[in-house]
Amino acid sequence: MLAPERHELILRNLRRHGRLRVAELAAELGVSAITVRRDLAELDSAGLLRRVHGGAVGTSGIGPGGPGGPSGPSGMVQSVMAKNGMAENGMAESQLTIGIVVPSSTFYYTDVIRGAEAMADRYGARLVLGVSGYDVAVEQERLEKVLGIGVTGLLLSTALGDGRAGELGRWLDDIDIPVVLMERAFGFPHVEHEYDHVRTDHAYGAMLALRHLVSLGHRRIGINLNASVTAHWLRQGIAEAAGSLGVDLFVSPVELPARGEDETTLAQLDAFLAECKAHGARAVLVHSDEHAARLVERAMERGLRIPDDLAVVAYNDETAALAVVPLTAMCPPKLMLGGTACELLLRKLRGAPGRAAATQHLSLLPELRVRASCGALETAVRR
């Protein structure tokens, strides 16, 4: 079936039902969901319908002349295709358009986006960005817009963390194009399907950081995490390290702000320093760099020497090297993560027709970058 014929059938169904779903249209027309989305995007740009998540709804652009009539959409559809250079043989389908929706376009996700963009360029694909600001309602709106332009695949790092997977409901399962999750690992029983995902093994990162401190002779270590998605996995690594390394770990019960500072941040850092002193901890793991840098400043104001009196490891390595005392830090492979996720999605989209690719769950390991904030205890040096 040629594109103009599909468009007329789509508009006729829309006039009859008032709302259309991509999955139902694909089955009725005998084409892929990607083709239906592209058709809906063209008709939306012509003002003949309005794209919504999972399908389309009518607009006043569908005139009383009806499909194929003198004032109907058939001629307009043909002219839209000509204007956009859309050939009936599908020649304009060579460039894939990929949606990428992330919680932020700064700090951690800057490199994730750059990595995905570089990989998209290698494949001749186009990337369309949506940013949620860690707001689930905003995320839904951004997803609607990105899906509404007819993207062929989606890279998604949802504002919901892995510990809140049950809150996804059905909306993730309702997305009818290939999805690769980034830094998230949702799966059964929280969602109906298993999804490809690429994520950093943050649990391993926490274990590696603590193992480094133990290798320097520290047996009591304080830990302070921020209220972020990453903390869910860091806690798993900390729990494993407590058993395998045989060390005394103290995790502060008060989480630091996920982003930036609020009026209580300095008080929380001061309280954490007091907790470490009471616990006898002369080494700390702090998430993230910003909080670790401020902790170092507060410690030095109290006469503590870094690393002689307090060894510090930060988690994220975004600005750790710029601290007053350059911070040893765990560095997630952010650039590689974005590139790997994008390549996984593009290979899936360019795979052989009718042959389903195996679902992949990929974990990338973070790297320990040693700087001045971590030194050996005197007793360890004498050994």
Automatic annotation (TrEMBL):
<dbReference type="Pfam" id="PF13377">
    <property type="entry name" value="Peripla_BP_3"/>
</dbReference>
<dbReference type="InterPro" id="IPR046335">
    <property type="entry name" value="LacI/GalR-like_sensor"/>
</dbReference>
<dbReference type="InterPro" id="IPR018356">
    <property type="entry name" value="Tscrpt_reg_HTH_DeoR_CS"/>
</dbReference>
<keyword id="KW-0805">Transcription regulation</keyword>
<dbReference type="Pfam" id="PF08220">
    <property type="entry name" value="HTH_DeoR"/>
</dbReference>
<dbReference type="InterPro" id="IPR036388">
    <property type="entry name" value="WH-like_DNA-bd_sf"/>
</dbReference>
<keyword id="KW-0238">DNA-binding</keyword>
<protein>
    <submittedName>
        <fullName>Substrate-binding domain-containing protein</fullName>
    </submittedName>
</protein>
<keyword id="KW-0804">Transcription</keyword>
<dbReference type="InterPro" id="IPR036390">
    <property type="entry name" value="WH_DNA-bd_sf"/>
</dbReference>
<dbReference type="InterPro" id="IPR028082">
    <property type="entry name" value="Peripla_BP_I"/>
</dbReference>
<feature type="domain" description="HTH deoR-type">
    <location>
        <begin position="3"/>
        <end position="58"/>
    </location>
</feature>
<dbReference type="InterPro" id="IPR001034">
    <property type="entry name" value="DeoR_HTH"/>
</dbReference>
